[in-house]
């Protein structure tokens, strides 16, 4: 299977949904309910509300409660970068840490797990910063110019 056909998975799983939701909000230019966003991005309204809460906390969208409520963009699509959305979603998506004990070395040879975790975390943080920097070079408006709406 080629790399292109598998898809690329960068960032938390909800990132793609968040970007799609922002695109639909930008396309509509109006307030949209979580149920309508969910139907547009093929998800559940409850999940969308959690995603939108992260985007609201980051100042990307605004929400209005009540029966006639929904979400709308706080900024134009030309001012919102994919990096902004990545950061908003990543700030709350830290899944539970998985701790694996491994005695994988030969006798007398063990990995300093604490040091390993610190050094790997530094590398991963640098990779994330570079990813965000790159994603900030694309706005929602630019993405919308590259896709067709059916």
UniProtKB/TrEMBL annotation:
InterPro entries: TR_Rrf2-type_CS (IPR030489), Tscrpt_reg_Rrf2 (IPR000944), WH-like_DNA-bd_sf (IPR036388), WH_DNA-bd_sf (IPR036390)
A GO MF label: DNA-binding transcription factor activity
A GO cellular component entry from the record: cytosol
PANTHER family (UniProt xref): HTH-TYPE TRANSCRIPTIONAL REGULATOR YWGB-RELATED, WINGED HELIX-TURN-HELIX TRANSCRIPTIONAL REGULATOR, RRF2 FAMILY
Name of the protein: Transcriptional regulator
Source organism: Paenibacillus terrae (strain HPL-003)
């Amino acid at each position: 299977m080629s790399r292109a056909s598998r898809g690329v998975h960068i960032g938390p799983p909800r990132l793609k949904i968040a970007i799609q939701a922002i695109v639909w909000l930008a396309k509509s230019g109006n307030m949209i309910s979580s149920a309508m966003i969910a139907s547009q991005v093929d998800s559940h309204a409850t999940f969308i509300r959690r995603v939108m809460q992260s985007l609201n906390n980051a100042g990307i969208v605004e929400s209005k409660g009540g029966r006639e409520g929904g979400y709308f963009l706080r900024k134009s699509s030309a001012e919102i970068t994919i990096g902004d959305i990545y950061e908003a979603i990543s700030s709350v998506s830290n899944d539970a840490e998985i701790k694996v004990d491994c005695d994988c070395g030969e006798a007398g040879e063990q990995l300093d797990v604490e040091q390993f975790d610190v050094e790997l975390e530094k590398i991963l943080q640098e990779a994330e910063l570079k990813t965000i920097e790159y994603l900030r070079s694309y706005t929602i408006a630019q993405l919308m110019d590259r896709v067709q709406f059916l």
